[in-house]
């Protein structure tokens, strides 16, 4: 399938909704927990077993993004979105069959393996295209899409819960819910497949801004051989680990912090806190990523990692003395967590150019998979050990919080080490692109005018 | 008199509005549910 080139007059503002239709759908993955209790009671599963489809899905997300990135670059965003649609929807359809026939392995295979491929390919599918359409504001453009991934869970969580309430929580009710999910997401994602276009020209639609082909261009193969890639890998891994650390234990954490005070936190208030953290995570994705277009990528990561460490320090030292302070610090940390995810494609574009930025982003997402294991492991393991040692309240988390500060410091140093990529890694510029003729300049200007 | 040579490419405003409503409505639903839940922090 050849990449779909935009016809004259195609607006670049059609591309973010195309990206959102995919990201809002695949973001459903984070709402998998809604299906856990019904599956456990209907099919007699343990908590560990019912988490398997989600865990396999996240592993497949990392693998397919890492290994499928080059294919996505080669075949274009429409191909990638089509693959994402087919895999994600058929994952649900296979799961529906699995629930109806009470064959749990089919749910693991369908949602986890097949659906997981859809997650990975879908996640990276619009990144490169958005950066090409918005070379003047790449942070904002990718921020919109990646915000959608956070938004997907906000939609799916109440929607899936309502569906299970209507259809029932037995195996046939779950099967029907999976079926409706599969069909609905197929229709919803179709908008992205139909709307997505690659620009006719690499010049920005806004006019005088930078071109998508400005600066160095590095292939995905070469990028992974540069220290810059691995510095950013460490930056992302540390930032995500720190965020997941708090996200994973948010509800018990706020309850434990204020358990011995005059204002303990109720179960419903703790649920409200978790919801507020999701809002901060989403707002950070679009807000901080857009800010990075103004203050620069290196500076915004200094903020995420430096101010993030400061916030963790405040929670560790004074978090249990003031509820507003605890909540404020946690919200800022979660906004930095979201911002870190959303800004990384633009950082990659600054360093490696747009040539294969989607594929490079796919490879970098292995840092996310690593952090997904590391963050919860640190917080849970340490909290369990502290509990065994007879500690309670805020002191259960003190050591974890200081470890998070250490990890953020490592990320901060890695960010400081980022330098422009050595020219020997650059893709040679074709002679025709070095000196554009008057005729090609005129044609390009006409294309730019038509796409405004 | 043909106006095709003087008129520009077709306007996509309707399509842009449709596309944003398509993704905006579910997102607004999700945000509404989120706000409902988040208020429990202050009322719960």
UniProtKB/TrEMBL annotation, chain A:
Chain residue ranges for the region called Disordered: 424-452
Segments forming domain Major facilitator superfamily (MFS) profile: 1-418
SUPFAM superfamilies hit by this protein: MFS general substrate transporter
Pfam families recorded: MFS_1 (PF07690)
Residues annotated as transmembrane: 12-32, 52-72, 79-98, 104-127, 139-161, 173-196, 229-247, 267-288, 300-319, 325-348, 360-382, 394-414
InterPro entries: MFS (IPR011701), MFS_dom (IPR020846), MFS_trans_sf (IPR036259), Proton-linked_MCT (IPR050327)
Entry's Gene Ontology cellular component terms: plasma membrane
Keywords in alphabetical order: Membrane, Transmembrane, Transmembrane helix
Membrane topology: Multi-pass membrane protein
GO molecular function, one term: transmembrane transporter activity
Source species, domain of life: Bacteria
Subcellular locations according to the entry: Cell membrane
Protein name per UniProt: MFS transporter
Species annotation: Streptomyces caeruleatus
């Amino acid at each position: 399938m050849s990449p779909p080139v935009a016809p004259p007059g195609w607006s670049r503002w059609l591309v973010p909704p195309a990206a959102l239709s995919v990201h809002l759908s695949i973001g459903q993955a984070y709402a998998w927990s809604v299906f856990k209790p019904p599956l456990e009671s209907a099919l007699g599963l343990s908590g560990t077993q019912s988490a398997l489809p989600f865990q396999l899905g996240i592993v497949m997300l990392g693998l397919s993004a890492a290994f499928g990135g080059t294919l996505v670059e080669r075949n274009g965003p429409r191909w990638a979105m089509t693959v994402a649609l087919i895999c994600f929807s058929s994952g649900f359809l296979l799961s529906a069959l699995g629930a109806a026939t009470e064959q749990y392995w089919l749910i693991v295979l369908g949602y986890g393996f097949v659906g997981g491929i859809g997650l990975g390919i879908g996640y990276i599918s619009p990144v490169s295209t958005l950066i090409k359409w918005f070379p003047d504001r790449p942070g904002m453009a990718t921020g919109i899409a990646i915000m959608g991934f956070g938004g997907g869970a906000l939609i799916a969580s109440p929607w899936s819960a309502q569906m299970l309430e209507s259809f029932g929580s037995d195996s046939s009710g779950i099967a029907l819910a999976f079926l409706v999910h599969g069909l609905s997401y197929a229709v919803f994602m179709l908008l992205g497949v139909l709307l997505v276009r690659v620009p006719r020209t690499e010049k920005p639609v806004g006019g005088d801004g930078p071109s998508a082909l400005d600066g160095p261009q590095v292939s995905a193969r070469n990028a992974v051989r540069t220290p810059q890639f691995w510095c950013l890998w460490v930056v992302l891994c540390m930032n995500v680990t720190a965020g997941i650390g708090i996200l994973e234990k948010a509800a018990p954490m706020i309850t434990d912090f204020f358990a011995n005070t005059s204002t303990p936190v109720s179960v419903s208030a703790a649920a409200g806190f978790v919801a507020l953290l999701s809002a901060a995570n989403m707002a950070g994705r679009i807000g901080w990523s857009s800010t990075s277009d103004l203050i620069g990528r290196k500076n915004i990561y200094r903020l995420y990692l430096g101010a993030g460490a400061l916030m963790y320090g405040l929670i560790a030292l004074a978090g249990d003395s003031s509820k507003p302070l605890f909540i404020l610090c946690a919200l800022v940390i979660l906004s930095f967590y979201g911002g870190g995810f959303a800004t990384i494609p633009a950082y990659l574009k600054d360093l490696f150019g747009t040539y294969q930025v989607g594929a490079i982003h796919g490879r970098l997402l292995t840092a996310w998979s690593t952090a997904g294991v590391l963050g919860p492991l640190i917080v849970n393991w340490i909290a369990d050990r502290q509990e065994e040692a007879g500690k309670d309240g805020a002191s259960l988390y003190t050591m974890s919080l200081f470890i998070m500060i250490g990890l953020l410091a490592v990320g901060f140093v890695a960010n400081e080490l980022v330098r422009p990529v050595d020219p020997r890694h650059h893709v040679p510029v074709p002679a025709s692109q070095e000196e554009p003729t008057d005729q090609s300049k005129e044609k390009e200007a006409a294309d730019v005018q038509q796409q405004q | 008199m043909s106006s095709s040579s003087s008129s520009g490419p077709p306007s996509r405003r309707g399509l842009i509005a449709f596309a944003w409503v398509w993704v905006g409505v579910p997102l607004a639903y999700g945000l509404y549910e989120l706000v409902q839940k988040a208020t429990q922090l202050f009322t719960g």
